[in-house]
Each structure stands twice: as C-alpha cells, then as structure tokens.
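The material for today's practical consists of a large collection of protein records. Backbone structure tokens are a discrete shorthand for how the chain folds in space. An example says more than a description, so a record of this kind follows:
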Amino acid sequence: MVITDPDLLKGRDPVAVCRAAVQGGASMIQVRWKDGAPADILGFTRSLVAALPVPVVVNDRADIALAAQAAGAHLGWEDPPLESLRPHLPAGFLVGISVGSPEEAERAAAMSADYWSVGPCYATPSKRDAGPPLGPEGFAALAARAPEGTPVIGIGGITSKNAGDIVRAGAAGVAVIGAVLSAKEPETAARALRVALELS
C-alpha cells in the first residue's frame, strides 16, 4: 500500500505518481490528506479511482470514500467508531484500522476490521504523532493479537531494506509513504519493495 502525502509529492501530479507506483507493484493506494478541504479530497480520490486498477481507500473519511466510490476507508481511534459505521456501509466496503499498542490491539480484536495496520515498525518522519518504533519483535507481538484471517500490514519507516524483516515477523504486506513518494522514480522504488516482499 502506498499512502499519499501532499508535502512529499512536491507539486508532482499525484495521479501520475500513484500510477507509476502501481506499475511498480503497489497493490493498494491510500489517500491521506489531513488538512485538505473535503471537496478537494473527494475530487482527488475520484481521480485515483478512475485512473487506477487497484483498490483506493481513504484515510479517516468513510463518507468521502463512499462518495468517491472508493474501495474503503482506513480509520484511526479519533474517527467515528467502526462498529457504528459498519451497518451503514455497503457489502464489500473495506475498513482498516490502525494498531500501535497492546491496548489498541485489544480494542481492535473486538471489531470487524478487514485489515490491521500495525506500527510504527521503525522511526518515521511521515507521522509526527507516531509512537516509539516497534521493531520486528514488537510488530509480531501485536500482529499475533489480530483475529484469525485478518491481514496485518506493517507501517512506519518501511523501506526495501527492512520490509522483509516485517514480513518474516508476520506481515501480509507493508504500507509506505516516503519510500515511494520521496523517490525520484516512484515506479522503481515500488518495484524494489515488491521484490523485497516476494523474496521474504
């Protein structure tokens, strides 16, 4: 999963960057635009949904995801509760949830999330309020708490050099921001990550 970040895009066409990432092997895109106006996030999401052959999910905003006909939404603990939203969501609408501590893992285990995003695995400049790095062992401990059959992806400081360690610790995949968006050639960066995952 490649997560968008307006600051790291630095004026580049976000659709073109995401398309390149998908060509390199990214299998999902998450729209994360924390301070964007809802209308702008909606327009951006719609453009990605129309342009990409992979699922697009929206960070925090299930309403925008629904309006844009995106594949789903990714929720944090300050967003509307998943169990309150689920009855109003269409069948097949994906909902992921962030898990960064044993307490959050316990709460998430009682929910019907389609996947967990566990981190930060390593130190990351992309999320200022991220907790201390978990490392592969810490990731494995939290991932083991996920309900059976729930995919767990690693996030936070993931690169092609350390992605394999997180997969070997139990990750079904990884989510990245800087590893692809900061790269001069996003397609090449995404391909390097994909190869690292396949070799794990």
In short: The chain has a mean pLDDT of 95.
